[in-house]
Amino acid sequence: MPTDSPLTLLGGLTAAEFLHDYWQRKPLLIRGAFPDFESPLDPDELAGLACEEGVEARLVEEDGPDGPWQVSHGPFDEAVFGELPERDWTLLVQAVDHYVPEVAELLANFDFLPRWRLDDIMISYAPPGGSVGPHVDQYDVFLIQGLGKRRWQLGGKVADDAPILGGIDLRILERFEVEPGDDWVLEPGDMLYLPPGWAHHGVSQSDDCMTYSVGFRAPSADEAITSFADYLGEQLPASLRYGDAGMAPPADPAELDDASLERMRRLILATLDDPAQLAQWFGRVMTQPKYPDQLVPSERPTDVDALVAILQDGEELLRSPGSRFAWRAGEGERATLFVDGDGIECALPLARALAADTPLDADLLLLEGAAELLARLLDAGSLGWYDEEE
Q: Which of 377, 366, 368, 380 shows the shortest CA–CA distance to 317?
């Protein structure tokens, strides 16, 4: 997308200006980011989703029957919501974009960021006073006010070891001091961007307050190192081992000397310093679905000729909710298409088309290898037919 056009979503900033001055640097409040915003679903629909099996949902009660800041996990019985007090509780439902297409459509507004960085859209509902306490997230988030009003207070960037309240299932900060000027009430269509590590506290100011949280994934260093090491371990031959041919006799047989450590260091660095392997691992890890169980593989292999006939009859495929696509160019006109944690070599134009928002219709069949790859993705559950998703 063009980076030099002012965006209403970013308060008149261009994408380039936002990424340079704010992204992962400092918060930004945007009034009217979504003009005339209408929430794609209402509180009852959100509560109904929280009652469904397989949906990740939490209920946070500031003064619960078992103590302060009580957290309960779904799925919930409908009767639970009738027993709650009139204030001071919050319902959180994760990955609503996986279940409600109208919510998923909001993600298209964030195409100035890499699509593979997007995680999901969480929606919170709260009556007056509802909150999850002052806390810090370790990821970027855009907080869109969808219904009612919520007061947001920011406490600045805090250290990783900032003390939190013990004995509860939430990471609430022990101390929270509001930064001067960082205290706002957001109304529908307003949006607040927060970079990682920024203390914030949101409290519902009205009945039926709903906030849409567009979150972004960022593996931690320890997760990345462990994951990459596991991936490399699967690729390396068993014959690649520590070796010390030509070494000098040891001064002390029990000593771990510098030369031995250097040989081990070189072995490790030689396996890590492989850009091609890094790219293959990174594409797989960043397209891992949030909930792998949501992908439903086909019970029997797809007949390629039948698939072609259906597409030529005017039917379309769609990307499964929660599926993730990305691509990386290879040599010539080849590429790796990364889909839901898998890496598939294919023609570059086909990889780009499948990872984009373009319709998956008969026009794709003009691209080299399209029919076979569509059948493979359909069998894996990454694609589906429209009539099957309705």
A: 377
Nearest to 292, CA basis, from 54, 13, 122, 65: 54
CA distance 23 to 32: 19
Other Cβ atoms within 10 Å of 44 Cβ, number: 12
pLDDT tens digit string along 318-367? 999 989 999 999 999 999 999 999 999 999 999 999 999 889 999 999 99
The C-alpha atoms of residue 283 and residue 210 are separated, in whole angstroms, by: 34
DSSP label of 33: S
| Cα angle 90, 92, 94; round to 5 | 175
- pTM comes to 0.92
Say if residue 75 is preceded by a cis peptide, omega within 30 of 0.
Answer: yes
Alpha helices in the chain (DSSP H): 15-21, 43-50, 78-82, 101-104, 221-235, 258-272, 275-286, 304-312, 348-355, 370-380, 386-389
Assigned token pair, 336: 């790796």
Q: Is the pLDDT of residue 390 over 70?
A: no
User: What span, in angstroms and rounded, lies between the C-alpha atoms of 190 and 66?
Assistant: 35
Query: Which token pair is 133?
Result: 């306490």
Closest of 103, 134, 132, 135 to residue 118, by C-alpha: 103
- Tell me whether strands 342-347 and 383-385 are parallel, antiparallel or unpaired: unpaired
Q: How far apart are CA 198 and CA 158, in angstroms?
A: 6
Q: Is the dihedral of CA 310, 314, 320, 325 positive or negative?
A: positive
CB-based contact 66:81 (threshold 8 Å): no
Please answer whether residues 97 and 324 qualify as being in contact, where contact means their C-beta atoms are separated by less than 8 angstroms: no
Give the three-class secondary structure for 43.
helix
* Cβ pair 179, 247 in contact under 8 A: no
Closest CA to 33 of 7, 5, 17, 9: 9
**Quick count: other Cβ atoms within 10 Å of Cβ 66?**
8
Q: Which helix (H) or strand (E) holds 339?
A: strand 334-339
Amino acid occupying residue 312: Q
pLDDT at position 66 is 83
Cα torsion angle, 76, 78, 83, 88, sign: positive
Query: Quick check: 380 and 339 in contact, CB under 8 A?
Result: yes
Q: Distance between CA atoms of 264 and 262, rounded to whole angstroms? A: 5
Q: How far apart are CA 135 and CA 173, in angstroms?
A: 5
Q: Are the C-beta atoms of residues 195 and 147 closer than 8 Å to each other?
A: no
